[in-house]
């Protein structure tokens, strides 16, 4: 059984990846997560406790802890997702973003490099440091065009600039030290287990609570949406078959304005959980725009499709329906996340191993 490190595996995308790897591969997954407000082990509660999933609460910026983990588990590689990930939070308090996304990635790279350098030649060649990043590093598009692997970086928010810096560090560790890295830049994800500060769960939960549905500006900002399990499949493929030093852009080919997304959510909720009177759409409220709000993101995923044969399985309509149904079916997960109850649950159900 080979071992793989996943950082940030208690977060939204990381937990989807851990579930996928445990279901569809025979890897042992060492899940390294600091459990910030965004990390939630309840998202992994359904996993069998058969020793293939090892959870370690640790900060990626803690060099001694990272060194000890590499020495103990001797992994074949790392899929690095741990990050501060919310743009609005980065505007209010950028320090954590610099610390985790830049310093943390640097520390993890150094720990990985030192472990990798100690391996025999064959193991060194098979090692991968897979850095998971965002299309937001490319800045903002007008009405035309797409981001691709060759697009110049032009990040605009504290979040995207910290991710851009980490992407540069990862590529530099490849060019300078020969560390076999791969980088993926993905568009907006949605799906089950997403923390309710992000657009889609925020709108679903506000709607169910009868609260306003806040839409930035005119609601005409465009995002390219990808169902989280499709992202997880792409990550697995790139980790296993991606070429060292290469970058792969991942996207859903599903551009929607924020207003379209909210309208679609309201229509789904009207169908699946009708209000006593009227439509959820009556809760829509336009609010002052986010400072520096990028207008449009869209990915050309042609390279990963041609090179690795990846395409998303879920359409936006089917993925959104599954997502809304999941939030309706899992009120306890939502309650615990919103109340901090899950931290007590972690203490009762999980001990660090
Ligand atoms: P998330 O906020 O849901 O999860 C992040 C996880 O990282 C949490 O479990 C948190 O506890 C952990 N973490 C934070 N700081 C840490 C630290 N210092 N040490 C160890 N663990 C730490 O984020 P997400 O939406 O799942 O995103 C995961 C990754 O994918 C991020 O790197 C993000 O930039 C990238 N990404 C996200 C999207 C998206 O739409 N959500 C799209 C493209 C790329």
UniProtKB/TrEMBL annotation:
Query: What family is this protein classified in?
Result: Belongs to the NAD(P)-dependent epimerase/dehydratase family. dTDP-glucose dehydratase subfamily.
The answer to whether UniProt assigns keyword Flavoprotein to this entry is no
Reactions catalysed, as given in the entry: dTDP-alpha-D-glucose = dTDP-4-dehydro-6-deoxy-alpha-D-glucose + H2O
Protein name per the record = dTDP-glucose 4,6-dehydratase
**Per the UniProt record, which EC number(s) apply here?**
4.2.1.46
The processes (GO biological process) annotated in the record are:
nucleotide-sugar metabolic process
The record ties this protein, via Pfam families, to: GDP_Man_Dehyd
Recorded GO terms, molecular function? dTDP-glucose 4,6-dehydratase activity
- Say yes or no: keyword Signal present: no
CDD domains, alphabetized: dTDP_GD_SDR_e (cd05246)
Query: Its domain of life?
Result: Bacteria
Q: Which UniProt keywords apply?
A: Lyase, NAD
Looking up Gene3D superfamilies in the UniProt record yields:
NAD(P)-binding Rossmann-like Domain, UDP-galactose 4-epimerase, domain 1
* UniProt gene name: rmlB
Q: Which cofactor does it need?
A: NAD(+)
Taxonomy of the source species: Bacteria, Pseudomonadati, Pseudomonadota, Betaproteobacteria, Nitrosomonadales
- In this protein, which residues make up the domain named NAD(P)-binding? 5-323
Q: Which InterPro entries match?
A: dTDP_Gluc_deHydtase (IPR005888), NAD(P)-bd_dom (IPR016040), NAD(P)-bd_dom_sf (IPR036291)
């Amino acid at each position: 059984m080979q071992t793989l490190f996943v950082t940030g595996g208690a977060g939204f995308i990381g937990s989807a990846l851990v579930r996928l790897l445990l279901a569809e591969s025979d890897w042992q997954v060492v899940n390294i997560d600091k459990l910030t407000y965004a990390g939630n082990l309840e998202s992994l509660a359904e996993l069998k406790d058969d020793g293939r999933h090892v959870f370690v609460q640790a900060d990626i910026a803690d060099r001694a802890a990272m060194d000890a983990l590499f020495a103990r588990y001797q992994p074949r590689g790392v899929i690095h997702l741990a990050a501060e990930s919310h743009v609005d939070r980065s505007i209010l308090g950028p320090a954590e973003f610099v610390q985790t996304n830049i310093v943390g990635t640097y520390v993890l790279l150094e720990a990985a490099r030192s472990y990798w350098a100690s391996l025999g030649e064959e193991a060194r060649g098979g090692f991968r440091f897979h850095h998971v990043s965002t299309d937001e590093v490319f800045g903002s598009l007008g009405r035309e065009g797409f981001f691709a692997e060759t697009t110049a970086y032009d990040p605009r928010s504290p979040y995207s600039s910290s991710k851009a810096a980490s992407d540069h560090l990862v590529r530099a560790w490849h060019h300078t030290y020969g560390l076999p890295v791969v980088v993926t830049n993905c568009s907006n994800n949605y799906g089950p287990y997403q923390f309710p500060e992000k657009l889609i769960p925020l709108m679903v939960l506000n709607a169910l609570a009868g609260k306003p549905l806040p839409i930035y500006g005119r609601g005409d900002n465009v995002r390219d949406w990808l169902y989280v399990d499709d992202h997880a499949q792409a990550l697995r493929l790139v980790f296993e078959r991606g070429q060292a030093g290469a970058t792969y852009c991942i996207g859903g080919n599903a551009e929607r304005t924020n207003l379209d997304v909210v309208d679609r959510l309201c229509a789904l909720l009207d169908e699946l959980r009708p209000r006593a009177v009227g439509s959820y759409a009556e809760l829509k409220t336009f609010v002052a725009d986010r400072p520096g709000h990028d207008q449009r993101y869209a990915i050309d995923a042609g390279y990963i499709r041609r090179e690795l044969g990846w395409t998303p399985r879920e359409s936006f309509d089917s993925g959104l329906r599954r997502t809304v149904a999941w939030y309706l079916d899992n009120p306890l997960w939502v309650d615990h996340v919103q109340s901090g109850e899950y931290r007590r649950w972690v203490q009762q159900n999980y001990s660090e191993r």
